[in-house]
Structure formats: structure tokens, C-alpha cells
Amino acid sequence: MRSPLTRPLAAIAAAALFVPVLTGCGSDAGDGDALVIYSGRNEKLVKPLLEKLEKAIGTEVDVRYGDSAELAAQILEEGDKTKADLFFSQDAGALGALSKDGLLAELPKGTLNKVDAAYRGSTGDWTGVSGRSRVIAYNPDRTDAAPDSVHDVVTSEWKGKVGYAPTNASFQAFVTGMRVLEGDDATREWLKGLKEVGKPYDNNLRVLDAVESGEVTLGLINHYYWYERAAEKGADKLTAKLHFLPGGDAGALVNVAGAGVLKSSDQSGPATEAVDFLLSKEAQHYFADETKEYPLINGVSPSGGVPAMDTLQAPKIDLGELDSLQETLAMLQAVGLV
Amino acid sequence: MSTTGAKTRPPAPARPAGAVTAAAGGRQRAGRRPPLVLLVPACAAAVFALLPLGYLGVRALERGPAHAWAIVADERTLTLLARSLGLAAVVVFACLVLGISLAWLTVRTTLPGARAWSVLATLPLAVPSYVAAFTWLSAAPELAGFTGAALALTLVSFPYVYLPVAAALRGIDPAQEEAARSLGHRPAAVFRRVTLPQLRPAAAGGGLLVTLYVLSDFGAVSLMRFDTFTRAIHTSYRASFDRTPAAALSVVLVVLTVALVAAEVRTRGRAGHVRTGSGTVRPAQPVALGRLRFPALAWCGAVTAVAVAFPLGVLAYWLAVGNSATWNGSILFDTAVTTFGVAAAGAALTTLLALPVGVLSARHRGRAAHLLEQAAYAGHALPGITVALSLVFFAVRYAYPLYQQLPLLIAAYAVLFLPLAVAATRAAVLQAPPVLEDVARSLGRSPLRVLREVTVPLAAPGVAAGTALTFVVVMKELPATLLLRPTGMDTLATRLWTETGTGSFAAAAPYAATLILLAAIPSYLLGRHRS
């Protein structure tokens, strides 16, 4: 019954005793007077920025990276015992959920006023820090031009040729936007149409891939995915092109990534300073240059071929009204999209 | 910890132990009351494994039973259930075909390079389902949906069937097959009528693990855009931040798991490793393949090509063409060391918790043993995010100093992967002749000493195989690691997640490749394992 397995595994078990030594770097994090940021934004995108933030506010910063929705669920589960002082979310919905449960502290007026009221929480306990626009990606080998309205997408002409990501938070925020702009009945009809013509994908990148490969002709995505892919592969190697919709169409909604300070934080001073830093010129330039998003403060413009904010014809909508995600989800379920 | 479950059973019929051994060496024996030295730690392991259930109860009933029932009774639930079970059925069937055919070829025939093939047949374990799905999708986007999900899941999980079946093939006494051959049966008939029935418990156990794996998988189905129960639970967390629907749906998965485990226990039935001789196993005479060795080699080669060579090839391609491939050797090394450390600790704790449950389930038939085994399995089909949130819930309330510290992460791995180690321990103990324990007991050894000096040493190789298996799956784990790791700690899986999150596939490739290579070490040991 001798096995070559037993001995190496005994060695592994012995090695296991040294785990705390091997990973000791983690054990001192998250306590004391460091500012703990739960970041739903990807480490690759924001780590350099958060290092600048640490210098700017002069407080040690520990960042916990994760998925926005899962981190929001985690904070909801932690309640007032959360280790997070600041939540840096990829979308407004996750911040809205924390706000609704009363977990976020009100931000100072001076901080809030840096951002147009359209791009922050209606109760003043979170603010957007960068903007992203919904667009239609299209494959020029398959069509000459993309439609100018999402309503033109759900026609028989495009049957089987439209990619979208129904479980994606940005898609759902866009549907919520349509409900606010055009009412529930019109939105339900549109969703039924989309179900007829569209092909659901797991996320925006997969939608973009499908457009790129010609698997679908049109894709409903956020603008920066294309610019990210262009950085990965080289813009000249991409087949897909973007169409920014005109005329305040619901498909041109501009949504935000944002931040909020936890009510239970014992670091509310540094946490508020951190929000101010995210709205500083330096940080806003970072979003424009590195993440290809829209800066939200005056005097900083987008870069890298992203059209200027004032050339966009986004629908006029109060992002605070996008908190009716539950109803959107119920509608998506009723129509059978999620 | 109560032992009433055991106490209420009628006393065992008096039967000489030797007779039982002669009739069915490894079979579970009714009767003897489980010793406290097993029962107490087994109950502790079960309580541990049931933590997610407690959490799900609290969350699902948060807004009243009527609300939870409305979610569960929705017709969509039934559709999702049907889809999940359909996918599991197809994957299990494919895994049985791949696993049993490869096990037979590598263990029982004159297949050239059998040893190398047996290592290659376990290597797919090292490939995370999301990496498998991603590589197939990048090569053939039209695979998305049921076909792609079934393909990716089959290719990463057939070793769950291969390993126990190969071990069983080595453990079966060849005398019966020889007798059948001497009676004029052809090899195919001998395999079908004598060998296959004896493989049933091993195959069913492997099939159960594959089923639970498919039910809990999020990575492959999510990339392949095939909506299953687990994907719906994720969607629910993601889209509504409302934990009630996710919890209610998770309860359905738990009920399903318990039903599946019960069905598998029934499949075991009276089947066992029937031995006519003493406790030692004589190796079987290998079947000469003759000219059939060419198709046999082609089959092994094809499986290895699609399950191992293909994903590695795609990763190599991404490394070669992407602009985002920035090699940072020191981060890669540190992450690999951390991953190795937590996986070793996770595997060690899981094995420790699984030992008493596995021994009980192998040696003591009875309600208490069955309940404990079912408890150990209860959480296995749950998505990682659900288990992780349940541990967040308990830790912030009852173990706050441990929260977001390594011990809790290691504990989460044990909850998630306990069944793998329990199944391996149980199978290993079953193959050890109980007569030796009886002799030790008759010589006045205490239950603890019998366990320490007889049972565990005899079962050690099989238990070690379970540890290696757990080691591999812990290395690949993502959702619980993301939520429970100490702030600032990274594993290869979380780095992989970070890199692919921005679409930097080339930058992700070194982490994926390192993960596969590192996980290949225990897979290699498993493949060489001869019990």
C-alpha cells in the first residue's frame, strides 16, 4: 500500500503551517488607522490612481479589490461592522443599494457641488466621479451604418444580429433610464422586441467580441470597452466601430462610476478627502487618459479619440431616478431576458 | 454533540466479524455503535459544513416564508432546474464514458505508455472551468450555449470519474474475471458482466462529484451564456443587491444536493469490493490490446489534446500576440507562493475534517453516519458566492477578529470542498480490510488507537489522494477567495480575474499558465498514484 503520494503530501501539510509567514503581508492590513477602500473598479484601471490618492490625503490606504455587486452584497452583509471606509463602485446601482439601506454618510456640500446634480445620488450620500456613455458598436463589414435610435434596432431588419448583455448593470441602468424617459409600457414593448431580434451575452466585452467577429452586426455596450480593446490590440486591428446616438435617445444614456463614504467609518475625514481627490483635476485627467471615461468636473476634457462630453446628445435624466432597479429587474424577468 | 441517533438503533445481530470479511471485505457493516472519537469530530465537521444553510435560512425567510415561496415557486425556477439538471446529465454521461474508458485502458491493458497516460488523464483537473470555457470560446464563438458549457465542463471534470474508477480497477480481485474467462466469456463480456458492476460505486461517487460540480459552476456557464441555477443566483445578487431571492434559490440547490447524495448512497447499495481471498490484492493480468492499441492510443491522444493541449495552446497564442503581456516575474512568483500556501492549508484542514466523516460513512451504516455524510455534502452544489456571504455573515457576528484573515479563508475552502475529501477517505477506508481493525480491537486497543494505528495508515494513500484533489480545486477557487481573503492578498485565480476584467487576455495568460502548471503537480502525483 505504499504510495508516491503520501510523502509529498505530508510535506505540503507541513508547508501549510508556514502559510501565515508566506502571506504575512495581508495580516496587518485593514486595521488601525488606515483608510480601507472597497474598490469595485478593476485594480489594473485604478491602482495607480489610488496610490496617488494615498499620497494626496497623507493617510495609509488599504484597497480591497472585488466585483462591485459582490462587494456591495458583502457590505450589506457586514452592516455597520464593515471594514470599508469608502466604497468606490463601478456603477451607480451598487451605491444606490447601500444608500437605500442607510449605510452611507452624507457628503459635504463643497464636495457634492463639484459635480453636476445629474451625476450624483439624490440624497447627497454618494457622487459620480467618472462618466460612461451607452453606444452602439457595429461591424462595418456587415452594415454601412448603425441605427440612430435603439428603437430602430428592434426591427425585423436586425433579427439575430443584435448583441446585448442583459445581466450587466450598465444595460439594466440603461433600461431603467428608458423606463424613466418613456414609461413602463413602451419599455416593455421595446424589451420584447429586443428579445425577438437580439442575442444575449454575459457581458459587454463578449458583445464587443461578437460584433468584432461578425457573429452579430450591432452591439449595445458602453463606449470605453472599445477603447480598452483598442489599447489591447491596436485600434487599426479592430473591425468594430462605435456609433454615439444623437437626439437624446435612451440608448445614449450617460451613467457614472462613483464613490460613497460609509456611515460606520471611523475615518470619515480622510474618506471625504479621498472623495475630493477623486474629483480633483489630477484624478479627472487620469479617468480621461487611462480609463477612457468622461471627466465630471469643469475644465477637464476626455482624451484618446473619445468625443467631447458636449458633443454627446445624452438624454436629460436625473440619475437619482435610476434607483428603481428592482422594477427593471422584475420587467426583465417578466419578459424573459434574465 | 448528541449521539442519540446512534443509540436509538437496535443492537446489532451477533455475527462473527471474520465471516463478514470473507463474504464482502470492504462492505459497510451494520451494527457497532460509532465510537465517540469519530462521532464528535464528525459532528463538528458537519456543523461547519452546515453554516451556509443556517445563513440561507435567515436570508430566505427575511421577508417571510410567503415571499421566499413565491420566488421558489416561480415557473422560471423549474425551467432553471431543468436546464441545470439537463446540463449535469449530459456532462456526467460524457464524463463516465471518458473516465471509465481511460481508466480501463490505463490500468487494465497493455496500452503503450499507460503510466504517462494516467498522469495526462488527471491533468485536466488543473484547468479552471472559466479558462477552459474562455479558450474554447475564443477559438469557436459559435460553441456558446449548451454545447459549449457541456464541452468545457466535461473536459475539466472527467478526472473526478477517472480517479476513483482507476483506483477501483486496481483494487478489484481479478479471480472473478479469471473465472469468467475460464468459462469461455470473451473479454468484452467479462468487462460488461463482471468488471463493470463492481465499478458501479466508484463511478457513481465520481458521477455525484461531477453533478455537484456542474450545479455549482459559475465560470463556464457564465462565459458560455448558458443560464443555470447558479448563474441565476449570481444574476440575482448582481442585479438587485437583494439577497432574499438568491438565498431562496440556493435552498433549492441544497435540497437537490441532499436528494442526489441520497440517490448515490442507494446506488452503492449492496455493491462493494467483493474479495474471496485475504486482504491483499493481486494485480490483474493486463488485457493484450493487439492491433486495437492504435485506436486506443488515438482515443487517449484525442482526449488529452482537447482537454490539456488545447487550453495551453490558446494561452501560448495569447502570450505571443497580445500587447498587454507585461511580465512581472516577482509578482507572479509571490502570487504562486501564496496560492500554494493557502491551497496546502485548505487541503490540510479539509482532510482533517473529512477523516472522521469518511471513516464513519465507510464503517458504520446507520442513520447517524448517513446524516453526517449528507451534511458534509449539503453545501457542495452551492455557488461559491453564497458560501462566501454566509461566512461573512457568521464571521462579522461571531468571529470578528478572524474576519478577512487567513483562517477564515481556509475554513471557507474546507466548507466548499469537504465532500471531495470525504469521498476519497470513504473509498480508501472501504478498501482496507476491516478484519485488521477487529483484531486490533479484540487485542484491547481503544477506538482512537485502532483509528490511529490501523485504519488511518491503511487508508493513507487514498486519503492523500483526496488531499491532492482538494489542493487542486482550492487553487482554482475564485468567488470565496475574492470576498474572504485578507485585504491585499492575491492568488493566481484572483490575478487572473483582475487581468481578464479589463480584457487583457495576454496579461492574464501567464497567471493562467502558472495556475495550470502548479496544479499539475498534485495532478501528476494523483495520476501516478497506485493504491
CATH class of the largest domain in chain A: Alpha Beta
- Overall domain count of chain A: 2
The span between the termini of chain A is: 53 Å
Can you give the helix content of chain A as a percent range? Answer: 25-40%
Structural class of chain B: mainly alpha
Q: Helix count of chain A? A: 13
Under CATH, the topology of the largest domain in chain B can be stated as MetI-like fold
Low-confidence regions of chain A:
20-31
Tally the helices of chain B: what do you get? 24
The whole-number mean of residue pLDDT values of chain A reads 87
Spell the H/E element sequence of chain A: HHEHEHEHHEEHHEHEHEEHHEH
CATH superfamily of the largest domain in chain B: MetI-like
What is the CATH architecture assignment of the largest domain in chain B? Orthogonal Bundle
Molecular shape of chain A: globular
From the spread of the alpha carbons, the general shape of chain B counts as globular
CATH topology (fold) name of the largest domain in chain A: D-Maltodextrin-Binding Protein, domain 2
Instruction: Find the count of extended strands of chain A (DSSP E, 2+ residues).
Output: 10
* E-strand count of chain B: 0
Number of domain units of chain B: 2
Report on the structure:
Chain B: It is found in: Cell inner membrane; Cell membrane. Chain B: Belongs to the binding-protein-dependent transport system permease family. Chain B: Pfam families: BPD_transp_1 (PF00528). The complex is a heterodimer of chains A (338) and B (531). Chain A is an alpha/beta fold. Chain A folds into two domains: 10-131 and 255-307, Periplasmic binding protein-like II (D-Maltodextrin-Binding Protein, domain 2, 3-Layer(aba) Sandwich), CATH 3.40.190; 132-253 and 328-335, Periplasmic binding protein-like II (D-Maltodextrin-Binding Protein, domain 2, 3-Layer(aba) Sandwich), CATH 3.40.190. Chain A has helices at 6-16, 19-22, 43-57, 68-78, 92-100, 109-112, 169-182, 184-197, 204-213, 223-233, 268-278, 281-290, 325-335, and strands at 35-39, 61-65, 86-89, 127-138, 162-164, 198-200, 218-222, 241-243, 254-261, 294-295. Chain A is globular. The model of chain B is unreliable at 1-31 and 274-278 (pLDDT under 50). The interface between A and B is large, with 72 and 70 residues.
